[in-house]
Fold this protein.
Amino acid sequence: MGIRYNAPFVLTFTFFCIFVMAVSDLTGGATTRQFFTLHPIFVYNDPLSYMRLISHAAGHANWEHLGSNFAYILLIGPILEEKYGTQSLLVMSLITALVTGLLNTFFFPSFLLGASGIVFMMIILGSFTNVKRGGIPLTFILVLILFLGQEIYNAFEENSISEFAHVVGGVCGSIFGFVQNGNNAKS
């Protein structure tokens, strides 16, 4: 019995982010600041500004930040990858990172890094894994209530966490859940 690379997107994303964090440690954080952090001012003639709209999801402030995000991604991601497929989960993650990056750029003059938008997309999307045709899962409703309640509460605390990225990720997960399960019901 051998080791199986059972969730290609989740595992590749995990290893890539670990690599980014390791290189960041070696460069004193310079690589993460330059390539994997969305800056508060978007420079339209700088190609890196466009790349960072998505690449911010691979950068993390420290190992604890990375570990807390990937504990969830490694727990939920393989289930979602099995249900929706590697390519679909990749596309949903890229869209979530892009939407989070664009909205942060337009509405918040702040730095943004980390995969927490993708984490919350996966948490909400995970509540759709056993959807039956014609119904909204109670688990989705409960997760949404708990999730929104926690994020609203946290928004009033002084911290360096982007609750906005969490909410955007959750909204993306909701949309993907309804769209994906609507498509599966038709086929």
Summary: The chain has a mean pLDDT of 89. Helices lie at 8-26, 30-35, 47-55, 63-84, 86-107, 116-126, 138-155, 163-186. The two ends are 35 Å apart (CA to CA). The first helix runs from residue 8 to 26.
